[in-house]
Amino acid sequence: MEVHHHPNSERKKFKHYLFEFFMLFLAVFCGFLAEYQLEHIIEKQRAKDYTKSIHRDLSADTTIFNNTIERLTICTKKIDTLVDLLGNAEESQKRTAFAYHLSVYAFIYPDASPNETTLLQLINSGSLRYIKNSKLVDSLKHYFNNIQLLKDFYNAANDINRDFRKNQLQFIDINPLLEYMQLGGIFSRSILNLTDTAFFNNRQLLTNTPLQLKNYANWCVLKKFYLINTIYRFKELKLNATNLLKLLDTNK
Description:
252 residues
């Protein structure tokens, strides 16, 4: 018996395949949209976590900057007084306890540094792309660059400071100086407020000729120069940090 195919069977079959293709395409497309949306949510959360961490670091940095600027400003003023005292050999011999006291402030050198852990992670991992605010990204890069400049400055200034301390040992006994600093809490990075010069009573300068005292005074002037430059750099970083905090607050 001869079998006859229905003329619409091929057309229905084609529509069936077309429908399956459409459903498959729709499923893949919806999956893509879901994955894209999930990735967008994750990136947004990462950006939020990073900015929160940066905000915390910057707030802590600002406190460090304020304390360091205040400490170093006190040091520069004390060094000025020490230079004036060294300019008078007779007065220096009469007030050796005071000369030792002032030499404490000349001995000090800052080791405070901003916290760059989150910034390093952001930059080295390429995670800055999570932050969509271009102005904020540029400001973060600028702040990071200024931190690197501070490190470079420290490296150069450390050599000068090491030479200064070697020279200082020709004029004063280092043991009571270090003991005084430890008792005064200077190593805790607190604000300097040492006034007890009696600790250095009966101490003598190791040299007292005008030429040698002038040499010590010149080294003190050089030390002050580097402290002033350090203050300037910390003030710049403080301004950067303050502006960044404002940007972060408006970016929430």
